[in-house]
């Protein structure tokens, strides 16, 4: 789908520069760390 394609640059940037990832709150870090700060989900 075209909508998620907007987040591809953010995902790549996070993967290449993990020190620059900023989380809105520290509690999200363990949840979003595997996806480099991007919220990723699959709709059913």
Summary keywords:
single chain; 44 residues; mainly alpha; 2 helices; 0% strand
Describe this structure in words.
By secondary structure, this protein is mainly α. The chain has one domain (3-34). It has two helices and no strands. The protein has helices at residues 8-16, 29-32. The longest helix has 9 residues, at 8-16. The chain is globular, with a radius of gyration of 11 Å. It starts with 7 loop residues before the first helix and ends in a 12-residue tail after the last helix. The mean pLDDT is 89.
Write a concise synopsis of the structure shown.
The protein is mostly helical and 44 residues long. It has one domain (3-34).
Q: Count the DSSP helices.
A: 2
Q: Element order, helices and strands?
A: HH
When the domains are counted, the total is: 1
Strand content: under 5%
Query: What overall form do the CA principal axes indicate?
Result: globular
Low-confidence stretches: none
State Rg. Answer: 11 Å
Number of strands: 0
Structural class computed from helices and strand pairing: mainly alpha
What share of the residues lie within helices?
25-40%
Gap between N and C termini:
14 Å
Largest sheet: none
Summarize model confidence as the mean pLDDT. 89
């Amino acid at each position: 789908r075209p909508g998620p394609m907007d987040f591809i640059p953010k995902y790549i940037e996070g993967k290449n520069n993990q020190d620059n990832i900023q989380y809105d709150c520290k509690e999200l870090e363990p949840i979003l760390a595997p996806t480099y700060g991007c919220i990723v989900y699959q709709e059913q």
